[in-house]
Structure formats: C-alpha cells, structure tokens
TrEMBL record:
Coiled coil: none annotated. GO terms for molecular function: acyltransferase activity, transferring groups other than amino-acyl groups. It comes from Microvirga makkahensis. Residues 7-162 form the N-acetyltransferase domain. It comes from the Bacteria. Keywords: Acyltransferase, Transferase. This is GNAT family N-acetyltransferase. PANTHER family: AMINOALKYLPHOSPHONATE N-ACETYLTRANSFERASE-RELATED, AMINOALKYLPHOSPHONATE N-ACETYLTRANSFERASE-RELATED-RELATED. The keyword Transferase applies. Transmembrane segments: none annotated. SUPFAM superfamilies: Acyl-CoA N-acyltransferases (Nat).
Length: 162
C-alpha cells in the first residue's frame, strides 16, 4: 500500500473476530498495562458482523495478504450526532495516512446521514491518536471518564462540528 492508496473498506463480518483481536493486541502492546479483554469491555468484537447500536456501522481494511490491518466504527446516539469508535491501525501500517483515511470515511458516512457533530473517546495513553485527531480538526474537551476496565483505562473526549 502506497502513501496515496488505501485498502478498500468493507463491512466487518463475524469471521473477522480473530483478526480484530489480533489487531487490538498489537496496538495495545505499545502501551504498558493495556490489555485485550474479550469478555467484558470488548464484547462487540466477538461478533463484529452483528448489527451495531443506533444504526451504526463497523468497517475493516485488509492488507495485501487479506488480513485485517485496520478498523473503525460509528454509531448515531441521537439525531445530528455521530460517535466514532474502534479506530485502530496495525503498527506496521501506521504513518501511511490510513488513520486519516478511516476518519474521513466515517465523517463522510456521518454527513450522509445528517450528522453535523461527531465525538469520540480516546484512551489517555494513545497520544499518537490524539495528534491525529487534532490534525483532523477535533478538539479535546475538558471531559474525561474512567472505564473501570481490566486496563484501568481513562479516556479524553474529543469533538468536531462539521
């Protein structure tokens, strides 16, 4: 994949569950104390092809060998509002514009469905992702939440008005 070409996004299917857990394991490995927990806080990844809440969607991107190398999802918690979830890019695929491509694809999808506001929550440890969100026009608010999960995650809130 060159810096200007990106894999085609497709809807996630249940057969992607193993690849998705592998993807998150690779991403989380960069952060001490960050663990993949399929039983409690990552239930949605056990059956990624299932319908998403609030008319949402879940997409994956595959590398040249057909393995999932990135993912992103979206839902619509209320009229005019979209929430970005599960943006993960495999470490060997970073720095090629794939994260930006995925966020822009989600924004396009949100606008098509009438959203004028998008928000997301991002683990406080994911500083590279925070830089990406800032570059794409998202502002970090003063909101923060603790998840009480196996990783002791705390998240920052980001938002963008279209």
């Amino acid at each position: 994949m060159s810096e200007t070409s990106h894999p085609t996004l497709r809807e996630a299917e249940d057969r992607d569950a193993q690849d998705l857990f592998g993807l998150l394991s690779l991403c989380f490995a960069d952060y001490p104390g960050c663990f993949v927990d399929p039983h409690d806080d990552l239930r949605d990844l056990r059956a990624p092809g299932s319908p998403r809440p609030n008319d949402g969607a879940f997409w994956v991107a595959e590398d040249a060998s057909g393995r999932v190398c990135a993912c992103v999802s979206i839902d619509f918690p209320e009229a005019g509002t979209a929430e970005l979830h599960r943006l993960y890019v495999r470490p060997d695929q970073r720095g090629k514009g794939l994260g930006s491509f995925l966020v822009q694809a989600v924004e396009h999808h949100a606008r098509e469905r009438g959203a004028t506001y998008m928000f997301l929550w991002s683990d406080t440890r994911f500083t590279d992702a925070h830089r990406l969100y800032g570059k794409l026009g998202y502002k970090r608010t003063d909101r923060r939440r603790d998840l009480g999960d196996i990783s002791g995650s705390s998240e920052y809130h980001f938002e963008k008005v279209f």
